[in-house]
Amino acid sequence: MAILTQEEAKKIIDKVLSYSKADEMSVGLSGSRTGNIRYARNTVSTSGETNNLSLAVTAVFGKRSGTATINEFDDASLEKTVRRAEEIAQLAPENPEYMPMLGPQKYLETKTYAESTAKINPEFRAQAAFDSIDPCKKKNLTAAGYLEDTTGFSSFGNSKGLFGYNKATSVDFSITVRTADGLGSGYAIRDVNDVAKLSTKAATEIAMQKALASSKAQALEPGKYTVILEPTAAVDLLENMMRSMDARNADEGRSFLSKRGGETRLGEKLFDERVTIYSDPTNPDIPGSPYAGGGGGRFGGGGGDGRPQEKVVWIENGVVKNMYFSRYWAEKKGVKAVPPPSGFIMAGGTQSLADLIKSTERGILVTRFWYIRAVDPQTLLYTGLTRDGTFFIENGQIKYPVKNFRFNESPVIMLNNLEAMGKPERSGGNLIPPLKIRDFTFTSLSDAV
Amino acid sequence: MMKRRDFMQLSGLGLGAMLLPASAVKGYAVTPERLMEPGADVAFKKRMADIALNTTRSKGATYADVRIGRYLNQFLFTREDRVQSITNTESYGVGIRVIANGTWGFSATSDVTPEGIARCAETAVAIAKANSKLQTEPVVLAPQKGVGEVSWKTPLTKNAFEVPVKEKIDLLMKVNGEAMKNGAGFVTSNLFFVNEQKYFASTDGSYIDQDIHRIWPTFTVTAIDKAAGKFKTRDAISSPMGMGYEYLDGLASEKISGPNGLVGYRNSYDMVEDATLAAKQAKEKLTAKSVQPGKYDLVLDPNHLGLTIHESVGHPLELDRVLGYEANYAGTSFATLDKWESKSFNYGSKLVNIVADKTQPHTLGTVGFDDEGVPCKEWDLIKDGILVNYQAIRDQASILGAKESHGCCYADSWDSVQFQRMPNVSLAPGTEKRSVMDMIKGVDKGIYIIGRGSYSIDQQRYNFQFGGQLFYEIKNGEIVNMLDDVAYQSNTQEFWNSCAQLCDQDDYRTFGSFFDGKGQPSQVSAVSHGSATTRFNGVNVINTGRKI
């Protein structure tokens, strides 16, 4: 029931639109089935499954809009919801930034759906947990993990003839393995659309290896170090930067992309010339939603106005090429209203992580960052800590585990201090290369394991 | 703490950088009038609850509880001279939790009918039995006597949902107008109102009806110097409260005058006044002196210290973290059981008395009973600097050798399973008479910090870094100027042992976290932290200024 076909969805949306007495009306209809299993201390703690199907109607009179939602689909309920949305709209204050709804759009085909994921059932989840817990138990290690799978669809239509439909599946898995004495901890995280590409056992083995290798860490003095960031470590800082590329904030003078005199840094070289970051919803490794705000996106929201997602180059050879816009701000500026992407791709190199380590005389391998928070939005300075396996590299080899560090660093400065990049890997819906960075700023030590 | 992924950016609502946890906006959009309508009556809810309890028992559960919940939200968002969005939501359903074969099972449904509830109860038992195959630690539940048919309601004088939307918009427009008039380049302001109507019943013989209200007014003022390419923000120094709309009365009797024209607010908030001050202060921040890094004595305002208490005391003393249940997400804790068992672990200096409670009036954590039917109470976490207790729920109490739960169980929705959440955790004020001015007079080289800023702490809660909203340099007992680029770094035990002086009860205020995140899948909860202004000696301050 929760997953409707395109035809089923369109039929309901068209019926809802036929009840409209508003100037403009849009209807969103989405459904999903989400299941999860959580374990800790080598035993399952919770598991569950949720089904959801809901419809949202937005009615507009002039520049007043109102939204009502419902999860019942008989004609009377649908019509009542339309009336309620209209009632809310008429009482709402005018929104001077309201933009008329879009007409029909062309959407790219993206491969966000995998049948194997849609077939996941409670037994599958229990087996996935067992495959992760069992090897840990055998090595006297403690596993805590979480698997969540979603199968869903989103669809929308409006009174101007716009219609969109997309089906998507996703699986997120994370595992923390700790040694019995609490002195070692390792982590692995995976996200896929197609569960056939996920082995909880293989991911757990990596976390086990890191837990054992990180035990009895030594303290190094905080300071500036050459670091190699695994994609899992690099992704959060880069995501934070990409999320800050809103054009309006830059134009208003309150962004890292604002500069002295009131201009923005669009067209300026802000990073090392090897830095190129783009988005492409059709990339087979990280297929994204074909439209903005259509779900499945890692950036959330995105306006939800049905704008098509296309390939966009955000940073090319170190130069800021694009920022994202709301439709209102784009019209005001007379430019194309490029929506924020659902995931991004940082072009990398061909080297493996091992190659990067081999070429490092003295440095730190960071496998994960934790509790990253903005310190200064002007410079995109962030603080956070290393976690679950941090290692000292000397003469091209991992020498010993080191205690966790707190860092204070900006991804903008980091991408100017780029030494080398490896082959990109999927991380949190993005493709991120392992990065070798010089002069990365660690400001204090942590005793946390 | 939450990962960014768990947040939905409400950009469809035009909120810019405002991020809300996805789970905070569950429910269906309704009219504001709907929020004033009563939900199902108690007799109906008791009948439905009994169907659930009887079904679970007949299917072999040894314990069951039922939560029939109606959750109402109203969120208002504005910027400068316009309303961005008004969201009214309602969510209604039932969650049934059981123990069968010594294992928890949970199921929820929005079908609150005898058939829907019976089906849901059967599913909960079936899930418990299925999970029991992987069970290695059977559940041991601390006893809880049934409390019969009782009710509890947040004491309030003005139900926020009964205040017309127009009055709320008028207030926010006034807030924004004053901020703009006083030098702001931009301002966003928001009002959050939450009402949880919860009916709890368990096989212990409890039938508890509760009506819980929370409020959070807040704003962000931005000052811009386009010529210099600089911007600074100042957030509201309000606190989310367990109160009605009366929190916004701005009573003079609840204000505390501080140095440099600063105003603190106890149980009544003057939003317009705070926005006016914020605009002036944000402008002042544009040219404030960049801090010289080094050791300083810190004088921390309650509206700042609350978050430090939350992160460095509240979270590490959650027993589920200590035991490893949160290892894959939030992390574990340095405050291990052996430290507690030793009865001599110096968490802080002798001045540090930290109390957990779910009873303090006007606070977010205060309710009559928790989400497993335990009457709420107060207990010590840190006594004269020594770690003496944790925060536990019924299935954890036995680990502490305790005979009863602390009453810390909470679920953020009828369809979320309840688990251990932080109660109010507060630092007791000093017993000697002392104002903020008295405290500042005794400081030779220090920084006075106000408001919630950037915060980050490691997964075992040793190393942390905190920023703030406002920083003032103290030299030889006097405030000399505003500072910028300030953050302090410390280690939890070292920090609390550097606690040197406390202001008294007259300065005591609460700080709150409205959307505190925990668990997988993530749930939110709201919690308060009270303190008076407190001094910490010799804390490491770094300079966060950079050039890009």
UniProtKB/TrEMBL annotation, chain A:
Assigned protein family: Belongs to the peptidase U62 family.
Record domain Metalloprotease TldD/E N-terminal: where: 29-89
Organism: Rhabdobacter roseus
Bias-annotated ranges (Gly residues): 291-306
Membrane spanning residue stretches: none
Sorted UniProt keywords: Hydrolase, Protease
GO terms, biological process: proteolysis
Name assigned to this protein: Putative Zn-dependent protease
PANTHER family assigned to the protein according to its UniProt record, in alphabetical order: CONSERVED PROTEIN (PTHR43666:SF1), TLDD PROTEIN (PTHR43666)
InterPro entries, A to Z: Metalloprtase-TldD/E_C, Metalloprtase-TldD/E_cen_dom, Metalloprtase-TldD/E_N, TldD/PmbA_N, TldD/PmbA_sf
Pfam family for this entry, one: PmbA_TldD_3rd
Residues making up the signal peptide according to the UniProt record: none
Domain Metalloprotease TldD/E C-terminal: 222-443
Metalloprotease TldD/E central domain location: 144-205
DNA repair in keyword set: no
Region described as Disordered: 282-306
Single GO molecular function: metallopeptidase activity
UniProtKB/TrEMBL annotation, chain B:
GO biological process, one term: proteolysis
Gene3D superfamilies (UniProt xref): PmbA/TldD superfamily
Entry's Gene Ontology cellular component terms: cytosol
UniProt cross-references to SUPFAM superfamilies, sorted A to Z: Putative modulator of DNA gyrase, PmbA/TldD
Keyword annotations from UniProtKB, A to Z: Hydrolase, Metalloprotease, Protease, Signal
Domain Metalloprotease TldD/E N-terminal: 64-128
Superkingdom, taxonomy of origin: Bacteria
Listed InterPro entries: Metalloprtase-TldD/E_C (IPR045569), Metalloprtase-TldD/E_cen_dom (IPR045570), Metalloprtase-TldD/E_N (IPR002510), Peptidase_U62_metallo (IPR051463), TAT_signal (IPR006311), TldD/PmbA_N (IPR035068), TldD/PmbA_sf (IPR036059)
Signal peptide: 1-24
PROSITE patterns: TAT
Domain Metalloprotease TldD/E central: 161-252
All residue ranges annotated as the Metalloprotease TldD/E C-terminal domain in the record: 293-537
Any one GO MF annotation of this record: metallopeptidase activity
PANTHER family reported in the protein's UniProt record: CONSERVED PROTEIN, UNCHARACTERIZED PROTEIN TLDD AND PMBA
Record-stated family: Belongs to the peptidase U62 family.
UniProt protein name: TldD protein
